[in-house]
Amino acid sequence: MSLLALDNVSVSFGGVAAVRAATMRVEAGEIRGLIGPNGAGKTSLINAITGIVRPDSGSIAFAEQPITALPPDLISARGIGRTFQHVELFRDETVLDNVLTGLYSHHVYGVAAAIVGFGRARQVEADARREAAALLEAFELAPLAGAPVRDLPFGIQKRVDLARALAVRPRMLLLDEPISGMSEAEADAAVATIRALARERDITLLVVEHNMRVMMRLAARITVMHQGGIIAEGTPGEIRGNRLVVDAYLGDKDDHA
Length: 257
What we know:
By secondary structure, the protein is α/β, with parallel strands linked by helices. It has two domains: 1-79 and 171-257, P-loop containing nucleotide triphosphate hydrolases (Rossmann fold, 3-Layer(aba) Sandwich); 88-169, P-loop containing nucleotide triphosphate hydrolases (Rossmann fold). The chain has helices spanning 42-49, 72-78, 95-104, 111-116, 120-138, 154-167, 184-201, 212-218, 236-240, 243-250, and strands at 4-13, 16-26, 31-35, 57-62, 65-66, 80-82, 172-176, 204-208, 221-226, 229-234.
C-alpha cells in the first residue's frame, strides 16, 4: 500500500479553487517531485496534507490511516514533517538551538529528572546534542552552530531549516522549495545531503521545487500541477517529453535539461 494516498482532494479560498480533485499516491522510500507554475496549487496541497488547511472534499490517508480531519500537531505526531517556502525558524536562537528544537520532540523522561538534570534526562540531552552536531556537519553548518539565525543569509537559513526538519525524524518529509536562495553549488550540496540522509533514515520525500535542473536529478517520479489540478505524472524523462507539461510549465527553453 502507498504511504501517502490522496483521493479527489479539493481546497478553495473564498470561492476560488486552489486545488481541484487531486489524486496522488506516494510510495514508502520514494523521492517524489511536485512541480508547476506559480499559483498551480502546490503549497495549498502540502498545506492540506499537513493539516494547515482542511480540504473542502476528498480524503487523505497516511500509512493507511485517515488524516484528513486531523490538526497539524497530530499529523506531525503520525510522522509527517515539512519545511516552508519562507523559513519558520527561531530567529533569536542559535543554529544549534534551532536544530535541537526538532530533537526535543522525542525526549521522554520524568519531570523530576528534567529538573535536577540527572539520569535519563542527562543522557537524552547528550544524545540530542550529538545528533544535532551530526546534522550540522552534514549540512556544513558546524562552524555556525553558535550564530544567531537572524544574522545568516537566507540560503544558509534554508539549510538550518532542512537540518531541523530532519531532526524531527519524520517518516515522510514535505519540502517546499528547499533550495531557494542558495547558489548552484550550495543547492547541489544540499540536494546530495537530503538524498543521502533520506536513504539512511528511510524517509519518504515530497519535494516542491522550481529549479528544474535539480528536480530532474533528485526525484524518481514527478507530479505536475496546473491551475489547481494534476495534469501529469511520470519519470523525469517522461515529464520532460510531455507536451502538455511543456506547454503549461516547462516551456520550449532548454533550461530544464
